[in-house]
Amino acid sequence: MELTESGYKFGGVSVSELAKNYGTPLYVYNSDVIVNNYHSLKSAFKGVDVHLKYACKALTNINVLKVLQKEGAGLDTVSIQEAKIGLRAGFNPKDILYTPNCVSFDEIKEAVELGLVINIDELSTLERFGNEYGGSVPCCIRLNPHIMAGGNTHISVGHIDSKFGISIYQVPHIKRIVDNLGIRVNGLHMHTGSDILDAEVFLRGASLLYEAAKSFKNLEFMDFGSGFKVKYKDGDITTDVEDIGKKIVDSFKSFCKDYGKDLQLWFEPGKYIVSNAGHLLVDVNVVKQTTSTIFAGVNSGQNHLLRPMMYDAYHQITNVSNPKGEDRIYSIVGYICESDTLGYDRKLKEVRVGDLLAISNAGAYGFSMSSNYNSRYRPAEVLIHKDKAHLIRKRENLDDLLQNQIEVDLV
Predict the structure, then answer these.
(1) Which neighbouring-strand residues pair with 382?
(2) Spatial separation of the C-alpha atoms in residues 187 and 347, rounded to whole Å
(3) Which residues are catalytic?
(4) In the predicted model, is pLDDT for residue 108 greater than 90?
(5) Mean pLDDT over all residues of the chain?
């Protein structure tokens, strides 16, 4: 989003006009930013056969998936529903990685029937998979490297107490199951967490995968997950993907030489691809001054953007309506019957009732984590593509809230 003489614009479109035309609260995404993020990350790993599988749990709107599919991306899915949306968006089943946890085996069987790339993270499931399919259907193994990494305990998923993956120390057990049941292992996978800054975290995990690979002679790919940190505010330190890319490429080439053939290198970026491509636009309903705080109360809340309350996440907030106003300190809060603070003690241009605010970095885990809490409607979504705004999800209404409820005669 940039400030021009005529006001704030996003993707060449007036932000105020977007709010006027589509109402608020409103999620707005820019396809150019999504495409640029995808290619900038892919280019960081030049020199090897790198494949980026977009982690669509970050944002699953089918139009966003279509944009990435046209650019050559694959898809990382964690549920059969995400996979089906990906198929509807045009992805080839072989380009969709299915990495569930704690699901019923029926869902895994459905994924096999759809032709997806299966990723298994639990020993008993691996054993059942082998009994069901033997070597007729290949699978990837998700290993837990026991590495604590990530910007928040909620998004650190590779440590010893995590529910994800099979312990790296259980590779001998995996091998026994694989050999006895004739399972064809085509990939090894790890994911340590999100908001990772240090290349050494990836390299430590990679070295463990390289060692584990000695037990599996027919691998086709290695999947290092993701976790690249994005910028949320001025002065933020972000992941140096060029540095990480060079170091991982060098180590991967050395591994492939020792392994005896060139494998594909996979990553699963989600937030990195779509976070800064989205804004949540909200209107100010009230400006309320208490003995200690000035609150700007908006027509949204944690029901639309959960990250500030769940992860203590920082999202930059801009007063679109008053770019030349005096700076004042506000706490931006929502209209939910909870203490749903979107931003605490923020310096904004003077906020007035009716002003339009833009909440940045709302492309990832914004709409996808939204809910109907307090029976509020979920917002509309707009995609700016080639300097033109397209409505890609209509705003909900009362009928949407009631459509699956069944009224019965309780007399």
Answers:
(1) 28, 391
(2) 48
(3) 337
(4) yes
(5) 92
In a domain, 387, yes or no: yes
Pairing of strands 7-10, 2-4: antiparallel
- Counting the structural domains of the chain, the total is 2
Which among 269, 291, 314 is the end of a domain? 269
Q: Which one of 241, 269, 297 terminates a domain?
A: 269
Following DSSP, what letter does each residue of 119-178 receive, concatenated?
EE--HHHHHHHHHHHTTSS-EEEEEE-----SSSGGGB-SSTT-SSSEEGGGHHHHHHHH
Give the Cα-Cα-Cα angle 276, 370, 302 (nearest 5 degrees).
Answer: 85
- Whether residues 295 and 221 share a domain: the answer is no
pLDDT band at 114 (very low <50, low <70, confident <90, very high): very high
- Indicate whether 158 pLDDT > 80: no
Note if the pTM is more than 0.85: yes
Indicate whether 193 pLDDT > 70. Answer: no
User: Using CA atoms, how far apart are residues 358 and 318, in angstroms rounded to an integer?
Assistant: 5
- The angle that helices 123-133 and 171-181 make with each other, rounded to 10 degrees, is 10
| 152 pLDDT higher than 50 | no
CATH number at residue 354: 2.40.37.10
Residues in the chain: 411
pLDDT of res. 143: 93
Q: Given a cut of 70, is residue 155 above it in pLDDT?
A: no
Determine the structural domain holding residue 109 and report its residue range: 99-269
In a domain, 224, yes or no: yes
